[in-house]
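Class prep. Sample record?

___
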Amino acid sequence: MNRIIQGIQQFQRDVFPANRELFARLASGQKPEALFIACSDSRVSLEWITQSGPGELFVCRNAGNMAPRSSRGDDVSATIEYAVSALGVRDIVVCGHSDCGAMKGLLNPASLKDMPQVRTWLRHAAPARLALGRAEISNPSAETLASLTKLNVRLQLDRLSGHPKVQAQLRAGALELHGWYYRIDTGEVEAWQASEERWVAVEESRHRLSARRNHGIQAVGHA
């Protein structure tokens, strides 16, 4: 804890004064570029991965990067609703990652006998576990764990598309959903291409997104 407090002191002494104008702008409101639904894992630093600064990402983190079906009183649903309705985000990213503890628990429920809350929460990923089609695994290979994690990202994207506010914006062409898989050991990020049903390097996904949006602008211009 001492190291964390020292970090705050360094921020106040060095970082804040050097960025005083930025924080003055942020004090009056926010306009993030995207909503990220990501895992709580401490090794997943979205700001580092995306090289983003304060005010650029709206982040919702939970065990296993879940986006449960929309329900009243659910904090994830509330965050999604606020991001879409109040902040007007144009993109939502569900980001899974390698060596995910939640996915390990999903593969080996016996390991969760002393964590009933975690076990209950992981029911939001149960269809992904069924899709994997394998018996309980206490020591999964990296490949098995990656397969389950990616299936879960796709499942959460499907759940996300059913949220009323998200659904409305998708139909209006004002919102896009993205599924990412981040490898902690290499720094690589893959993106799910639903139209081709395959994972590609995020750089390839970016080029396709730019082309699609440019086409949309041209189409509006010719309308």
Summary: The mean pLDDT is 92.
